[in-house]
Amino acid sequence: SISCFCVSQKSFSHFLAFLISTNCTSSRTARSEEDKETLWDAWGTWSECSRTCGGGASYSLRRCLSAKACEGQNIKYRTCSNVDCPPDSGDFRAQQCSAHADVRYQGRYYDWLPVDNDPDNPCALKCRAKGTELVVELAPKVLDGTRCYTESLDMCISGACQIVGCDHELGSTAKEDNCGICNGDGSSCRLVRGHYKSQHASGKSKDKIFL
Questions:
Q1: Residue 142 and residue 154: Cα distance in Å, rounded?
Q2: Cystine bridges: which residues (predicted)?
Q3: Which of 108, 102, 156 is CA-nearest to residue 132?
Q4: Helix, strand, coil tally for the chain in percent (to 5)
């Protein structure tokens, strides 16, 4: 059997308007989500590394395609040239200080030495005039890839100190374990304790602990 029901012309008009409205809203929502994902152009190619060894930085840019401001950053960085420099290559920060030796400062020429491990602004190029106590900020920021601190992999990028893990990834918290293994769990080596006799010129023996 066929069931039939009657709908007034007014009710049908309201129902049709509801369907059209729902369809338009869904289309606008889908289009809005699509626009949100395509506000940015594709990322560009990576720039040349700021250093040839010792760990540097490279960047990639993208362009905002929207008339309004886009959410997010238009530049991203990664580390590069993560190989040790030759022993005679010198310190990267020291090289930047030395580059100012042929520039007069207050009417004089100086040989400049690096000021390392500045707790207040590690990414400014602060140098000390050789043989004096004169310390000068010769540049507001060091070159990208300069270590923030001498005993750390963290590096300066665009004047800000960025965290670098032992895996040489920016923003990584990876650290070496007691065995010197990056992200290790300490199971690849063992702690050894013992004593040995050390003979001194005095003829006395002395116990020492070794690990």
A1: 13
A2: 49-80, 53-85, 64-70
A3: 108
A4: 20, 25, 55
| Token pair listed for 23 | 């369809």
Q: How far apart are the C-alpha atoms of 46 and 57, rounded to whole Å?
A: 10
CB 76 within 8 A of CB 117: no
Q: Which residue pairs, CB below 8 angstroms and at least 24 apart, start in 55-58?
A: 55/79, 55/80, 55/81, 55/82, 55/145, 55/147, 55/153, 55/155, 55/164, 55/168, 56/80, 56/81, 56/144, 56/145, 57/144, 57/145, 57/155, 57/157
Nearest CA among 192, 184, 119, 179 for reference residue 152: 119
pLDDT digits (tens, 9 = 90+) for 151-209: 999 999 999 999 999 999 999 999 999 999 999 998 888 877 766 565 555 555 455 44
Measured distance between the N- and C-terminal CA atoms of the chain, rounded to whole angstroms: 93
Bridge partner residues of 197 (DSSP): 207
Cα radius of gyration rounded to whole Å, the chain = 32
Closest C-alpha to 147, from 157, 135, 137: 157
| pTM of this structure | 0.69
Q: What is the phi/psi pair of residue 20, to 5°?
A: -65, -40
β-strand pairing of 75-80 with 56-61: antiparallel
